[in-house]
Write a structure and sequence with these properties.
The structure holds two protein chains of two kinds. Chain A is α+β, with helices and mostly antiparallel strands. Chain A has helices at residues 2-30, 32-41, 61-94, 113-142, 256-267, 277-285, 288-291, 325-333, 335-338, 351-361; strands at 151-158, 161-166, 171-174, 176-180, 190-196, 201-204, 212-214, 220-224, 230-236, 248-254, 315-316, 321-322. Among the domains of chain A are: 2-96 and 110-142, no CATH class; 274-361, Immunoglobulin-like. Chain B starts with 9 loop residues before the first helix and ends in a 10-residue tail after the last helix. The chains are: A alpha+beta, B mainly alpha. Chains A and B meet through helix 2, helix 3, helix 4 and strand 9 of A and helix 4, helix 8, helix 9, helix 10 and helix 11 of B.
């Protein structure tokens, strides 16, 4: 059974590849503006973030099948546009009223069954073709079985930040997702379960996959198998409240060794630093620990992001600011300065406490 | 039945002071006055909704802009969407239907004149309730709290936990109240068309305008009711401890989406079908030919109405429906393209072989055809659900539905304004201002909404109050905003035209366009009683028969 479907998929794959190469050529002719944008932003160099995003520079199978289908649909709709526009343009130019005709009416034509039948049947056939092509991609993306060695991540949407949990690996982190690159010969896809703690959100990283919503009481699933390493950007796409705009996503696609070492580092609990005890006390004495967790300490709040390895992340406040000492200090002192209406309260700490707690944060590698 | 209800007549109003005049407008049950009330109130809200759009566009002009706060921005897009759909598009279309349907079918008034007035005032009250939220949203003392939950107020964002205060309540009540108004109007339109046609006007001789408004009214009955039901459930959730949509207590966020979109998608057709009706009257007159394929046009409209009732979940492709549901809604959505395509072809067929006169109504009609074609094709793109997984909730979708609503509906409305303004006021709108209006609006429209597709493709989600400079969306957004201001300028030209022409326009006479439907057989503006003698028709174009006794339509039908 599995073998059969594998073979069928293989055949499909080959014919699909053929269509794809033809289509991508059409694509370059039909839509040069989009091609140039994809050429501009498609380069995802390792390590440095690829700041632009483009649904037409896919780096993962779901995004790739979507992009291929999209090009197919664009070509068909493009042809329809050219034909109908030509008819419209021709009739406007050719049948414009002229001064000579003043006072005379043209021949009164009431319709034509043959012509109307033609422009009913042809569009119907086009719809059938488009539907079949689409249904294939829907099935391929949505119904892909999960291989046993897939990486599993649970994404939980919160008002204005992302919680990432790796149940198999025992890791909890936030806002910056690390996943392994998938080698075509030895695929390591990542399967994502999508949950929400409050309102609706939507997980969208255009170059890896289409978006899927995170809805309370309605668990969703999606998957990606990135084909190249690098940082991929995305953000919440479903309006979720005041700071919907600053609920950004960074996906770091790591090589196998990088990913393994990242996992090892994240699995470690907090390492107590004697120099930061004062800050740790401030953290535990105030309400910080009601909302935030630090692995290996009494702090086990779940309302805000897990801070065990805060410093391993490049941004804070769901991508709203870079993770620097100054920004951290500002964020703790007055979150509204970075992200108005974020749910993190201003703790009104004294300057000394503020410096101490920031120093403590800086030990959370 | 209706004739004894109406006491207002043109002769009586002339000598009275303005208080009486005002009183007669407020207490009127005349379908023509109510039609004008609908249209004028819609124009007022068009300006308000337009200003909200401009605030949105100024804020997005460049990255990290601080023109308004995030809260204000979110209120602006919520109010803009709600206003434009419920208090501009629907009332203005109801206004035209109210004004024109009785005139086109040779009736004295609508079937239920009092219900007609009641419906108008209900929807106007709805609009006032929505805008009162600016004052009452946080209970007056903290003035300034319009709803900020988006025009579809997805659960659980509309629940009390996430939308405290009363801003969402004003939104809910506003839609509930105006919804009842819409249902009243729909019943009225259906009853009028089915019962009050003049002698000889069989269903297959009705102007397409009446046919399409009949279909639209039927759709309103089916589409508005689930919305009203959902609003009542939301009120129960918010005040009576219900848990329909309260996810924290086991309610369903997805249920709200179904309720909203089974209203929301037919609503698009409720708005566009009356615009098809405008096109089906205006294009033939300015092409000097009858509509091409009348029976097919009717059949296609009925077909659109049926199919559009089964496409709602294409707004929900990203919510994680299973692959069969996604395939089903892909198929039904693409299928709507067929009857819609037939319509576009038939309008081109009407122009084909004609002698097209490029008066302002026709310019806007051609603009409609061009833009509606593109809007339909981007619709097909998003009907392909995987493509929609990328495009949905992005600026591409914003561009698409503005292509429908502005490029389609608003262009058709402008055509209707230029075409029927002479009938309503007795004065022609200025052709030269009309051409300025058309070209400015066309340029502004395309600058804004053509460009707007691109940031969607580049990953920009909708409803964000700002974006990072590094994403490469700055230039595109700047161009989009510039286009918005050009459109605003065009609207100013339009309003100036409406006002100036009212006082200084050329006299229209009964039939300025040499048209063929019954409304052009009586004076402009028509007397309160409409027809001095009940007309009798023998074909779809009674005035053609009258003008061409040697070659009447009635011979061929």
């Amino acid at each position: 059974m599995a073998r059969n479907s594998g073979m069928k998929n293989g055949r499909k794959e080959m014919s699909a590849r053929r269509t794809r190469s033809v289509l991508s050529r059409c694509w370059q002719i039909v839509l040069p503006p989009f091609c140039s944008t994809s050429a501009l932003w498609a380069v995802g160099t390792d390590g440095t973030p690829n700041n632009g995003t483009n649904i037409f520079s896919p780096a993962s199978t779901p995004a790739k099948s979507i992009a291929d289908l999209s090009i197919f649909v664009l070509v068909i709709t493009g042809i329809i546009f050219v034909v109908v526009f030509a008819l419209l343009f021709y009739s406007v130019v050719k049948f414009r009223g002229r001064a000579i005709d003043a006072g005379r009416e043209p021949a009164q034509v009431y319709g034509s069954t043959q012509i109307e039948l033609a422009w009913t049947i042809i569009p119907t056939l086009i719809v059938v073709v488009l539907f079949l092509a689409t249904a294939r991609v829907i099935h391929a993306v949505q119904d892909a079985p999960e291989p046993p060695d897939a990486v599993e991540v649970t994404v939980i949407g919160h008002q204005y930040w992302w919680e990432f949990r790796y149940p198999k690996l025992g890791i909890v982190t936030a806002n910056e997702l690390h996943i392994p690159v998938s080698n075509p010969r030895h695929p390591t896809p990542t399967f994502v379960q999508l949950l929400s703690a409050d309102t609706d959100h939507s997980f969208w990283v255009p170059e890896l996959a289409g978006k899927t919503d995170l809805i309370p009481n309605h668990p969703n699933r999606m998957w990606v198998d990135p084909q190249r390493t690098g940082v991929f950007l995305g953000q919440c796409a479903q309006y979720c409240g005041t700071q919907h705009a600053k609920m950004l996503l960074r996906i770091s696609v790591d090589g196998p060794e990088d990913f393994a070492s990242w996992v090892r580092a994240q699995q470690k609990p907090e390492v107590e630093d004697a120099g930061a005890i004062a800050g740790k006390r401030v953290f535990e004495r105030n309400a910080c620990m009601n909302c935030h967790s630090v692995g290996g300490t009494p702090a086990d709040g779940r309302f805000g992001p897990d801070l065990t390895h805060l410093i391993s992340r490049t941004t804070i406040a769901a991508g709203a600011a870079e993770n620097t000492r100054d920004n951290l200090r500002l964020w703790i002192q007055n979150p509204s300065a970075i992200k108005p209406s974020s749910l993190m309260p201003s703790m009104k700490l004294s300057d000394a406490d503020l410096d101490a707690v920031v120093s403590y944060m800086e030990t959370l590698h | 039945m209706s004739s004894n209800v109406i006491t207002v007549s043109v002769g009586q109003t002339e000598a009275k002071p303005w208080v009486d005049e005002l009183h007669q407008w407020l207490a009127t049950v005349d379908h023509k006055r109510l039609g004008i009330l609908y249209i004028v109130s819609a124009l007022m809200f068009l300006v308000i909704g337009g200003v909200e759009a401009l605030i949105i566009r100024i804020q997005l002009m460049h990255s990290h802009n601080n023109f308004v706060s995030p809260e204000v921005f979110n209120r602006m897009f919520t109010m803009h969407g709600t206003t434009m759909i419920f208090f501009v598009a629907m009332p203005v279309l109801f206004g035209f239907a109210n004004y024109l349907v009785p005139l086109m079918i040779g009736a004295r008034d609508m079937a239920f004149p009092r219900l007609n007035a009641f419906s108008f005032w209900l929807s106007f009250l709805g609009a006032l309730l929505l805008y009162f939220s600016f004052l009452g949203g946080s209970g007056l003392y903290g003035a300034g709290n319009a709803p900020d939950v988006g025009w579809w107020s997805y659960a659980p964002l509309g629940a009390r936990a996430f939308s405290p205060g009363h801003s969402s309540d004003y939104w809910t009540l506003s839609l509930l109240v105006s919804g009842f108004g819409s249902i009243g109007t729909a019943i009225n339109i259906i009853a009028t068309i089915l019962c009050l046609r003049c002698p000889g006007m069989k269903l297959n001789r009705m102007p397409l305008f009446a046919w399409l408004n009949l279909v639209m009214a039927g759709m309103v009955l089916i589409a508005i009711t689930p919305l009203s039901a959902a609003q009542i459930m939301l009120l129960i959730d918010r005040y009576l401890g219900g848990h329909f949509f309260d996810t924290q207590a086991g309610g369903s966020a997805v249920l709200w989406m179904h309720f909203f979109w089974i209203f929301g998608h037919p609503e698009v057709y409720v708005l566009i079908i009356p615009c098809f009706a405008f096109m089906s009257e205006i294009i033939p007159v300015f092409s000097r030919k009858p509509i091409f394929g009348y029976p097919v046009m009717v059949a296609a409209t009925v077909c659109i109405a049926f199919v559009s009732m089964s496409v709602w979940a294409h707004h929900m492709f990203t919510i994680g429906m299973n692959s069969y549901a996604n395939s089903f809604f892909t198929l039904t959505t693409m299928a709507v393209g067929v009857p819609t395509g037939i319509k576009i072809f038939n309008w081109i067929g009407t122009m084909w072989g004609g002698r097209i006169q490029f008066k302002t109504p026709m310019l806007f009609s051609i603009g409609f055809l061009f833009q509606f074609l593109i809007a339909g094709l981007t619709g097909i793109m998003m009907a392909a659900s995987p493509f929609d997984w990328q495009l949905s909730l992005s600026y591409f979708v914003v561009a698409h539905f503005h292509y429908v609503i502005v490029g389609g509906i608003l262009f058709a409305l402008f055509a209707a304004f230029y075409y029927w303004y002479p009938k309503m006021t007795g004065r022609m709108l200025s052709e030269s201002l009309g051409k300025w209006h058309f070209w400015l609006f066309l340029i502004g429209f395309h600058l804004t909404f053509d460009v707007m597709h691109v940031p969607g493709i580049l990953g920009m989600p909708r409803r964000i109050y700002t974006y990072e400079p590094s994403r490469g969306w700055d230039t595109l957004n700047f161009i989009i905003s510039v286009g918005a201001f050009i459109q605003a300028l065009a609207i100013l030209v339009f309003i100036a035209n409406l006002i100036v022409s009212y006082f200084k326009g050329a006299t229209a006479g009964n039939d300025p366009w040499d048209a063929w439907t019954l409304e052009w057989s009586i004076s402009s503006p028509p007397p309160a009683y409409n027809f001095a003698m009940v007309p009798t028709v023998a074909s779809r174009r009674p005035l053609w028969d009258l003008k061409h006794p040697e070659d009447p339509d009635s011979r061929y039908e």
